[in-house]
Amino acid sequence: MMSYSAWWLFALAASAVSANDCSQDYDIISQDGINDISQCARMSGNIRVASTNLTTLHLPNLTVLRGDLFIKDNDYLKSVELPRLLRLNGALALFKNGVLETLDTPALTYLRSLEAVDNPQLKNVGFPAELRDIDLLRLVGSRVIKLGGIKPQGVGSIEIVDNPEMDTISFNHLVKVHSSLRIANNHETCSLHLPSLTNIGRGLELAHLRIVKAPRLESVGGGVHVHDNWFEEIELDDLTEVEESVRLHNNSQLRVFSLRALERVGGSLVVYNNTQLESIADLDELETVNGDINIRGSFRTLSMLQLEQTAGRIIIKSTERLDCKDIKKNLAIKPASDKWVCQEEVDRNEVIALAESDQSGGKNGAVQPTPGWSMGIALGVTGLMSIVQFLF
């Protein structure tokens, strides 16, 4: 039979555990609200911090949050400090916190999603304990220079856009992106390194980059859109299949574009306004294009020996000397005269823009927006509903 002293110690311990476990949603509007949950170690529910006068959000004892942490429209908030947080089973969402500078999560190793959007002073974000499991990473409109400690092998979606000081993006362990990958409009010297990436489930958009390295990328389940970059070459020589269109345009320094292994494009293949483009390395593995082929530039040679099927036209225009008869003769397919346009020594204006009648894009030939970038697609229905409820 338990002695009184033993029973008392057991009750005290149970009380302490209960005191550290918090199970409800919390809407924080002042420091008093923070004080109410400051002793919570494990929480089941959502925490919402919106339109407060807080300068610091400090939760010193929180180790596990089974819910979402939403932080929005806090005009004076400079830092979010979660020194003991190990696991966040929901979303960490930071929206429109005008002076927020620091997100401090030194112990965090699991996070379902991170969305930091329109926090123009945010510059300190990192995960020293190494974040190896995350479904959504979205960083838009910040001063972050580099993201450290994010090392998943698989991720749902990545969007890193409009971060003017971001100069390096590296995901050395990333093998698969299940949905979309979008990198655009960061620092003008920004480089992207994806040495292990083999598959992207939906769309890929790369813009405003100085260097791109994705040497093992094999397939993209949506479209590939590469535009307005500053690199001189891009080599995607392991890429064999793109489910929708490939669009390469407005890359002012691009000289070499290589897709040596590409076999199938589910939409159109469109290349234009790459004013320095001198070489399109052979497309001799390309067998099927389910749309138009529209390639324009200043190249002297082009070969597509294995091309057997195209659902649209073949339009080739170069400002340089080009042997159009030889290109057509070596095609496996024999295009009808109304499906074939090949011109050499054309005016520069004809390679820097597409006429309305020549627009190419989706599976039926019409220009389509790059798919898969909406927050709803990236998050899934559950995450979207949570954020909608918070925002409104």
Overview of the structural elements:
It comes from Dimargaris cristalligena. InterPro entries: CWI-Assembly_Regulator, Rcpt_L-dom_sf. It is found in: Secreted, Cell wall. Its main location: secreted. The structure is a single chain. With 392 residues, the chain is mainly beta. The protein has two domains: 179 residues; 148 residues, no CATH class. It contains five helices and 37 strands. Helix 3 links the parallel strand 36 and strand 37. The protein is elongated.
Any chance you could write out the topology, listing elements then pairs?
Elements (H helix, E strand, L loop, with lengths): L3 H17 E2 L3 E3 L2 H7 L4 E3 L2 E4 L5 E3 L5 E3 L2 E4 L6 E3 L5 E9 L6 E3 L5 E8 L6 E8 L4 E5 L7 E3 L3 E2 L1 E5 L6 E3 L5 E2 L3 E4 L6 E3 L5 E2 L3 E4 L3 E3 L5 E2 L3 E4 L5 E3 L5 E2 L3 E4 L6 E3 L5 E2 L3 E4 L6 E2 L7 E2 L3 E5 L11 E2 L3 E5 L5 H6 L10 E4 L5 H4 L22 H17 L1
Parallel strand pairs: 1-3, 2-4, 3-6, 4-7, 5-8, 6-9, 7-9, 8-10, 9-11, 10-12, 11-13, 12-14, 13-16, 15-18, 16-19, 17-20, 18-21, 19-22, 20-23, 21-24, 22-25, 24-27, 25-28, 26-29, 27-30, 28-31, 29-32, 30-33, 31-34, 33-35, 34-36, 36-37
